[in-house]
Specification:
The chain has helices at about 20-35, 50-60, 65-80, 120-125, 140-155, 170-185, 215-230, 235-240, 275-285, 320-325, 325-335, 345-350, 460-480, and strands at about 10-15, 40-45, 65, 90, 130-135, 160-165, 190-195, 200-205, 205, 260-265, 290-295, 305-310, 340-345, 355, 365, 370-375, 380-390, 400-410, 410-415, 420-430, 435-440, 445, 450. It has about 500 residues and is of the alpha/beta class. Strands 11-10-12-13-22-21-20-17-18-23 form a ten-stranded mixed beta sheet, sandwiched between helices. A seven-stranded parallel beta sheet has the order 3-2-4-1-5-6-7, sandwiched between helices. It is elongated and about 80 Å long.
Length: about 500
C-alpha cells in the first residue's frame, strides 16, 4: 500500500495549444536533471506523442493523467505509482489551461466552475501548483489580463506564477513582467527568449513524432540550458515543495500468482509505439510476462504466446515495409489460426485488416485477420473521447460493460466487416450516439479506440485470463489427440 505522497510537483499549463508548454516542460525536466534530480513526467490528456518526448527527457516512462478516462481516483493512483523512485514531478498540461469537455450547465451560474477534463482540474485533483506559460511573441500588457482572468477563475488557488516564452527582448520582458505583477499580482518565474535553433517541428496534428526527429537531444539540451539561465529554478523548486501531501487510492493487485506468468506478445517498434505505459505494468501485475516483437524487423513471432497485443503508432511511411515483411505476416496468420487471441487497437486494427490503402493510392496487403479493407485519408480525422458499451461478449468482458477510450486516426472503412460482430456501441463524451465500433470474435477484438487499462482494474486481468485460457485450450487439444501443438514460433 502506498504511503502519503508528498513529492514536489508542478503542472505546466498554457493559454492554448502552441504556447510552449512542451518546450517549458522539457526544459524544466532537463534543467532539474542537471541539478541531480530524478524527474517523473506526466501528460494531461490522452496524448502519445508528447509523452514520448517527456519520457526521453526524463529517462523514465511518462504517464497520462486523464480525468475523463481514469476518473479522479485513477489520476491520483497513477500519480502515486508513477512517482515512486523520483525526486520531483513535472506535469505537462493539454490545450489551454481551462479547456476540457465544456462547462456543466450548473457551472454557468456557479462562482467556482469545475472545468471538467481540463489541466486546471488535474492540478486540483493532484494538489499541485500550476505555472502558466504565456507566449509573449505577439503580446504585451494583454498577458496580464489573461493571467488575471485565469487567476480569478482558479478558485482552488492552483496557479502560482507565469513563465514567459518566446520573448522578443529584455524591454518586452520587463513590460510584461511589470504588468503581470501590478495587475494580476502573480510573479513571473522566468522568461525564455525566442530560440530559433530549437527544432521540435509541429505538424497539423501535433508535434513531429519523437522517432522522426533527429534533433531531439540537442533541442532538449538547449531548452534545459535556457531554463537554467532565464528562470529562477531555486524559486520554482521551493514552489514545487509546497504541494500538499496526497493520499492516492490503493491499486488493487491480483491474488498472488501461483502459476507461471503467461506470455503476452506486444508489438513494439518504430511502427507500433503508442501505448499507455501503465497498460503494460497492469498486465504484468495481473500475471503476464511482456514479450516484445517487431513486425518491421522480425521474421516470426516469439514462441508460446498466450495473447498478442498490437497498439497504435503506424505512420504511412512504414506501411510498405510492414507489407513486405511476408514471413512475419505469415507467422501472425498461422498463430491466430492455431488459437492465439489478438487484441488490436488503433493501428493494430489497420495492420490486422485485409488491405490498407495509403494516401498516394497504393494498396498494401496486410495480415488479413479481419476481412476488412481500410483507406488512410489525410483529410478525414476521427478524434475524441468515446464512451463505450460492450456489444458482444469478448475478452474484455460481458455485454453491457462500460468503458472509456480515445480515438485518433485518419482511416475510412472501404469494405468488409459484415461477418464479424461489433465490439462496442459508442457515444461521444457528451452522450451523442456514434453507432457501433470495432469487431470481435472468440479470438479477436479489434477497434480504433485506445483504452487505458487503469480506468477499470479488472481489464488487464481479463486479458491475462484470456491468454491463459488460450494456452490451456491448445494444450488440451494436443493431449486429446485432436490436433498437435503447432511448431510455429508463437
Amino acid at each position: 500500500m502506498l504511503e502519503e505522497v508528498g513529492i514536489p510537483r508542478l503542472v505546466v499549463g498554457g493559454l492554448g495549444s502552441g504556447s510552449g508548454k512542451t518546450s517549458i516542460s522539457l526544459g524544466l525536466t532537463a534543467a532539474l536533471r542537471a541539478r541531480g534530480r530524478t524527474v517523473q513526467t506526466f501528460k494531461v490528456g490522452a496524448d502519445f506523442i508528447d509523452t514520448a518526448y517527456l519520457a526521453h527527457a526524463s529517462r523514465r516512462p511518462c504517464r497520462n493523467l486523464d480525468s475523463w478516462l481514469l476518473g479522479h481516483d485513477g489520476v491520483r493512483r497513477s500519480l502515486g505509482h508513477g512517482a515512486v523512485g523520483a525526486d520531483c514531478v513535472i506535469v505537462e498540461g493539454a490545450m489551454g489551461v481551462l479547456d476540457g469537455h465544456g462547462m456543466a450547465p450548473e457551472d454557468s451560474a456557479s462562482s467556482a466552475p469545475e472545468f471538467p477534463g481540463s489541466t486546471l482540474e488535474v492540478a486540483r485533483i493532484i494538489a499541485a501548483p500550476l505555472v502558466l506559460v504565456v507566449d509573449a511573441w505577439a503580446m504585451g500588457e494583454t498577458a496580464a489580463a489573461a493571467a488575471l482572468g485565469i487567476k480569478q477563475l482558479d478558485k482552488a488557488g492552483s496557479v502560482i506564477g507565469v513563465i514567459l516564452n518566446n520573448v522578443h527582448n529584455d524591454y518586452r520582458r520587463r513590460v510584461i513582467e511589470d504588468a503581470i505583477w501590478s495587475l494580476a499580482r502573480m510573479p513571473v518565474l522566468g522568461a525564455l527568449p525566442h530560440m530559433q535553433s530549437v527544432r521540435i517541428p509541429e505538424l497539423r496534428t501535433g508535434l513531429l513524432p519523437l522517432l522522426q526527429n533527429p534533433h531531439v537531444d540537442e533541442a532538449i539540451a538547449e531548452l534545459g540550458d535556457a531554463m537554467t539561465r532565464h528562470c529562477d529554478l531555486d524559486l520554482i523548486e521551493r514552489l514545487m515543495e509546497g504541494a500538499r501531501p496526497l493520499q492516492p487510492p490503493v491499486r488493487r493487485h491480483a491474488t498472488p500468482h501461483t502459476e507461471e506468468p503467461v506470455r503476452i506478445g506486444v508489438a513494439y517498434d518504430d511502427a507500433f509505439c503508442f501505448y499507455y505505459s501503465e497498460n503494460l505494468e497492469l498486465l504484468e501485475d495481473a500475471g503476464a510476462e511482456i514479450v516484445t516483437f517487431s513486425p518491421l524487423e522480425d521474421a516470426t513471432l516469439p514462441r508460446d504466446l498466450g495473447l498478442i497485443y498490437m497498439g497504435g503508432g503506424i505512420s504511412e511511411a512504414y506501411v510498405p515495409r510492414l507489407a513486405s515483411n511476408q514471413s512475419f505476416l505469415e507467422s501472425l496468420r498461422r498463430a491466430h489460426a492455431h488459437g492465439v487471441p489478438v487484441y488490436a487497437e488503433g493501428s493494430g486494427l489497420q495492420y490486422s485488416a485485409r488491405s490498407l490503402r495509403t494516401s498516394d493510392g497504393a494498396t498494401h496487403q496486410m495480415a488479413g485477420l479481419i476481412p476488412i479493407d481500410i483507406a488512410l485519408e489525410a483529410g478525414t480525422l476521427h478524434s475524441g473521447y468515446r464512451d463505450l458499451s460492450i456489444a458482444t461478449p469478448s475478452m474484455l468482458g460481458p455485454v453491457g460493460t462500460r468503458l472509456r477510450g480515445h480515438e485518433f486516426h485518419f482511416s475510412r472503412l472501404m469494405s468488409g466487416g459484415d461477418c464479424l460482430n461489433p465490439a462496442y456501441t459508442m457515444h461521444d463524451c457528451d452522450g451523442e450516439p456514434l453507432g457501433c465500433e470495432g469487431w470481435t470474435d472468440p479470438l479477436m477484438l479489434a477497434s480504433f479506440i485506445h483504452l487505458h487499462f487503469g480506468q477499470e482494474q479488472e481489464l488487464a486481468g481479463r486479458l491475462v485470463a484470456a491468454a491463459r485460457e488460450s494456452l490451456e485450450r491448445r494444450a488440451d487439444t494436443a493431449l486429446a489427440g485432436r490436433g498437435s501443438r503447432y511448431a510455429a514460433p508463437v
